[in-house]
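Notes for week 9. Today we move from apo structures to complexes. The key idea is that a small molecule is not decoration. When we ask for a structure prediction with zinc ion present, the ligand SMILES becomes part of the input, just like the chain. The input block below holds both the sequence and the ligand string. Read it once before you look at the output, and try to guess where the molecule might sit.
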Amino acid sequence: MIPPTHLYVKKDTVDVNAWFADWRESGKIGTRSDTYEFQSRTMSRIFSLAHLQTIDSEIDDLSRRIHQIDQKLAGDPAVTSARAALDAEEKHLAEEQAALRAREREAQSVQAEIKDMEDRLYGGHVTSPRELEGMEKDLEMHKRQRSSLDDELLERMERIDQLQKRTRELNGHLDQMQSSRSKDIEAISREKDKVNSRLSGVTLERDQLRGELDAEALRTYDHLRRTKAGRAVAVLRLDACGACGMAVATGLLQRVRAGDEIVFCSGCGRILSP
Ligand SMILES: [Zn+2]
């Protein structure tokens, strides 16, 4: 728990000098004239750095969340792949339907030839037995061809039924995904607004805090943020560094708690904060 760098106390409620010996009036009274504002007398720099770290870590988290949200808004891989599956199945269905129509035309033309042959064969105009025998063989061949085309047509129609059923299923699946995605998008967009508004608030707070810190402290802090995975300040946890866990020597602990200087962890090199 990091104590605040500022304390706000309602006037006339406390004996200021007795209760807040370690704090000084910062001279800045907030917007409310009935409130004192105090700033820590000795610990302000280290607490300001620790507070800055808290704010910067929150800014990092919020920025990561914005990035995730933008990726979600840009597109849903599950919807994309469901649409691709439907497209592929529809293409396959269209090809099968075109093939069926071609085979149906073929069957119609074979049927027309059969009718033509039967008319000639049974019309009584052909009398030569050899010619009749030849025509009958030809007719049988056409009928076999017609029968095998019929079998093929049936198979193709069954396949088309299956494909139509599958296409309807995929379509329904895609519809469901899209409607749940549009609800998601609404929720995500609302979340993005909230995250953005929090981000501008904390960014403002960070800029104000940086304005109160001296250049040397900021240089050290910024360097550590760059080189220590975004975490420059480690708060003590049970007399050990809260970041790397290394026990802090007694002498060092006293210096950290005194708060007069910036003390670094001998394990990870981060700034230690009480
Ligand atoms: Zn450490």
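Residues 76-199 form one domain.
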